[in-house]
């Protein structure tokens, strides 16, 4: 038997893509002595999240995270970021200190995997393998990919999306069973939010591909496909179920678009920004340039293909009327322009995001490669249209004057003229060079392929280097970042006993997380609903981060904040109750004289109505424990109503007195572990013991070995009743949905194995399992395994 398969260059594509990625990552890794330091969310979320999750898994603290905000469901908070990523799990054999050094190389690895996946997918639709390789580079280093260096974990869904389409194509074209189920599993477990958006696009792809006549689809085959889809999701339930349960109470999930907002964006610049994102590299996140007021700062809106832009896609659209790929591209643009349709990919949320743009980016890459590969497609037609549209954008935005007070203040509507013209040069320069090569050589010439590949690579390197350099210019200094954030925990000599939280004044986000110290300053959007409810109740805005301003001085005592770190030692800092402690690693440290250890008692209670009308809720919560009506009836023998005269006394001296009163009976010990926490307290009489640990349905408690009822008090925290005398308190946490998810995953793993065994041994072989390439739009196999007998 002889194995026949088309020559594929997976390893070559992988290595080339890896080298290209390192060309714009490695220089900055070397500059910052081994760590890739960028800007914004990458610096303050991606790096500390990797550090936190890595440390938690290696130490077994996978139930409750004490260093995520005020405390959080570990799986619920990090399933969106790290836990499903196969790239993250590559760091597990490494010690904690090495983890920050891995993010740059892992990012290059993600891009290389994305390139191989796109190459394998596009290779099914083109005759020349070299064009498929170009398609892999276009996808892996597209505007979406480079933009989302900022959001490092967005590269996982992008890297594995092509394999999902390959699994579908293999099932439909070549009758290959099991591959689609595994692809669904990988995409679902990597990131549940992106997977939900992927499902919508996959349905669109399936409908249009099936309608094209390329697939033979019967009832049996359809239900087998549906079965594999369910199996794939079932396999991912070990993370999928806990993650979904954790975010169900998040207010961001329950803000749907309504009325005209379903049909039209309320910002007219957004339409221009959507179109511009197809023809130009996208602006730096949080630094919008082409359309400064489009309010798309962190939307991941980019589908730009380096060097080629939309020239190949437009050439294909012009030449292939009625083609399924043309329909996908046109419908994708329509979806992007209609808010209600765009919101499908984020569960109809009112916040604007374009995080699904990597899916049409793959389709744009495919259309470009087909236009290059098919001699019947007039590539010049698409090139002319693309050049014209790009030039119109450049001239309109770059030359229209800005007028203020009747005077011209600037020529051009852009926010950063230097960056604007660099991006214009990248976009137009690539098109001009492409036109010259196309005119001289023709797209079928080997010289054309060679020169295009070289220029594409150079364009990627120039664009990506400029983007990264611009980001670093707006980010933290690498030396400072490494010394203070990454290595800061070893340089702080503060006393961490008893359990306490830390505050940071005018500092970088998530410094407490870097230092593995519980903190009230946290930039993490997936936290328990109880935290959000609490902060909003006291007047602190809680959207994607907890950043209680210094004016809420009572919160620092209530939440057991012992130290405040002043990042810039020259800043002026004054606040009641804080005294200078020391200089640590170039920063000033202040100690809270109103610090209350974790686990304390009250003598009075306050009602919901009293709390609602109070203008100083943070101070009021130091005077009395907030109970609902049912709890007041239940515990009226233990606590007295707070006197009205005390409610309105909010002086600094009273803050100190209230804090001292709360310290009178506190837990003598409080220790955390990988299952919850233990505490001990001695009381003169029965009372509620309050813990500023966020309430969550996964908690259970015992007092002196007897199960105890956990009361949700002070809006979002917990308390248990203890008796007079010595009390041993134990709180245990079990991740909601984890046991169910493990069971479901186990069941579907058995089902998948049984299914594959049945397919392998119980089904007759398909007579034509691997049909050969026919015409543009007909898939050829991932690997041609058709065999023939050798002549003896």
- The proportion of strand residues reads 5-15%
Residue windows where pLDDT falls under 50 for at least 5 positions: 1-5, 766-792
Estimate the mean pLDDT confidence: 93
**Annotation, overall tally of beta strands:** 22
Distance between the termini: 11 Å
Q: Which strand order do you get reading across the main beta sheet?
A: 14-15-21-17-18
Helix content: 40-55%
| Structure class | alpha+beta
Describe the global form: globular
Counting DSSP H or I runs of 4 or more residues, the number of helices is 31
Q: Largest sheet, described in full? A: 5 strands, antiparallel
Question: Can you walk me through this structure?
Answer:
- Strand 17 (699-703) and strand 18 form a beta hairpin.
- Helices cover 49% and strands 12% of the residues.
- The protein has a domain at 10-39 and 79-474.
- Helix 5 (103-122) packs antiparallel against helix 6 (129-140) and helix 9 (179-190) runs parallel beside helix 11.
- It is built from 31 helices and 22 strands.
- It has a five-stranded antiparallel sheet with strand order 14-15-21-17-18, with no helix packed on it.
- The chain is globular.
- It has 792 residues and is α+β, with helices and mostly antiparallel strands.
């Amino acid at each position: 038997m002889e194995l026949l398969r088309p020559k594929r260059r997976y390893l070559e594509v992988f290595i080339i893509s890896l080298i290209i990625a390192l060309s714009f990552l490695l220089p900055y890794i070397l500059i910052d002595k081994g760590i890739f330091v960028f800007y914004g969310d990458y610096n303050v979320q991606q790096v500390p999240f990797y550090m936190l999750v890595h440390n938690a898994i290696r130490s077994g603290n996978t139930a409750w995270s004490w260093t995520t905000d005020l405390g959080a469901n570990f799986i619920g908070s990090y399933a969106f970021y790290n836990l499903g990523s196969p790239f993250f799990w590559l760091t597990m054999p490494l010690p904690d200190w090495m983890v920050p050094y891995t993010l740059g190389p892992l990012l290059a690895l993600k891009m290389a995997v994305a390139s191989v996946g796109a190459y394998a997918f596009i290779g099914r639709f083109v005759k020349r393998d070299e064009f498929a390789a170009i398609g892999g580079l276009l996808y892996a280093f597209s505007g979406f990919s480079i933009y989302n260096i900022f959001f490092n974990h967005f590269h996982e869904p992008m890297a594995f999306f092509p394999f999902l389409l390959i699994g579908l194509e293999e099932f439909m074209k070549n009758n290959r069973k099991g591959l689609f189920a595994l692809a669904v599993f990988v995409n679902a477990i990597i990131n549940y939010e992106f997977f939900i958006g992927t499902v919508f696009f996959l349905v669109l792809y399936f409908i249009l591909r099936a309608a094209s006549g390329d697939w033979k689809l019967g009832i049996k085959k359809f239900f087998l496909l549906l079965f594999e889809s369910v199996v794939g999701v079932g396999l991912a339930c070990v993370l999928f179920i806990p993650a979904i349960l954790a975010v169900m109470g998040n207010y961001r999930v329950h803000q749907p678009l309504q009325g005209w907002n379903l049909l039209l964006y309320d910002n007219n610049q957004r339409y221009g920004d959507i179109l511009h994102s197809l023809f130009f590299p996208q602006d730096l996140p949080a630094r919008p340039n082409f359309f400064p007021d489009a309010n798309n700062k962190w939307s991941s809106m980019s589908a730009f293909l380096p060097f080629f832009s939309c020239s190949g896609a437009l050439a294909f659209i012009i030449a292939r009327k009625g083609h399924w790929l043309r329909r996908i591209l046109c419908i994708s643009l329509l979806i992007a322009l209609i808010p209600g349709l765009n919101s499908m990919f984020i569960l109809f949320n009112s916040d604007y995001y374009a995080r699904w743009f990597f899916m049409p980016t793959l389709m744009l890459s495919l259309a470009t490669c087909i236009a290059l590969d098919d001699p019947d497609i007039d590539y010049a037609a698409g090139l002319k249209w693309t050049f014209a549209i790009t030039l119109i954008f450049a001239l309109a935005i770059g030359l229209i004057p800005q007028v203020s007070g009747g005077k011209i203040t600037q020529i051009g509507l852009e926010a950063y003229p230097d960056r604007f013209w660099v991006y214009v040069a990248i976009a137009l320069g690539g098109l001009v060079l492409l036109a010259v090569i196309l005119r001289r050589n023709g797209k079928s010439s080997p010289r054309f392929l060679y020169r295009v590949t070289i220029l594409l690579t150079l364009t990627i390197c120039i664009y990506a280097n400029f983007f990264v350099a611009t980001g670093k210019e707006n980010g933290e200094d690498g030396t400072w970042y490494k010394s203070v954030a990454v290595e800061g925990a070893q340089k702080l000599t503060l006393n961490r006993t008893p359990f306490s939280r830390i505050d940071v004044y005018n500092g970088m986000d998530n410094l407490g997380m870097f230092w593995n110290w519980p903190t009230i300053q946290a930039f993490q959007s997936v936290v328990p609903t109880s935290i959000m409810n609490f902060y909003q109740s006291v007047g602190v805005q809680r959207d994607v981060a907890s950043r209680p301003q210094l004016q809420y001085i009572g919160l620092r005592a209530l939440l057991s904040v012992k130290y405040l770190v002043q990042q810039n030692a020259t800043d002026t800092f004054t606040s009641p109750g804080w005294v200078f402690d020391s200089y640590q690693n170039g920063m000033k440290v202040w100690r809270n004289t109103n610090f209350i250890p974790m686990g304390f008692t009250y003598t009075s209670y306050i009602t919901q109505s009293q709390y609602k009308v109070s203008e100083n809720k943070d101070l009021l919560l130091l005077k009395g424990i907030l109970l609902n009506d049912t709890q007041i009836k239940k515990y009226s023998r233990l606590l007295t109503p707070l006197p009205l005269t005390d409610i309105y006394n909010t002086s600094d001296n009273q803050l100190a007195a209230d804090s001292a009163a709360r310290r009178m009976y506190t837990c003598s010990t409080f220790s955390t572990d990988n299952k919850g926490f233990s505490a001990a307290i001695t009381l003169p009489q029965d009372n509620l013991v309050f813990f500023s640990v966020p309430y969550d349905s996964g908690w259970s408690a015992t007092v002196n070995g007897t199960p105890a009822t956990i009361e949700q008090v002070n809006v979002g925290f917990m308390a248990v009743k203890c008796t007079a005398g010595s009390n041993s308190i134990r709180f245990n946490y079990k991740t909601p949905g984890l046991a169910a998810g493990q069971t479901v995953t186990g069941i579907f793993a058995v089902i998948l194995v049984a299914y594959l065994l049945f397919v392998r041994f119980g089904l007759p072989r398909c007579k034509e399992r691997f049909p050969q390439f026919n015409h543009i739009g007909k898939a050829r196999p991932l690997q041609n395994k058709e065999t023939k007998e050798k002549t003896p």
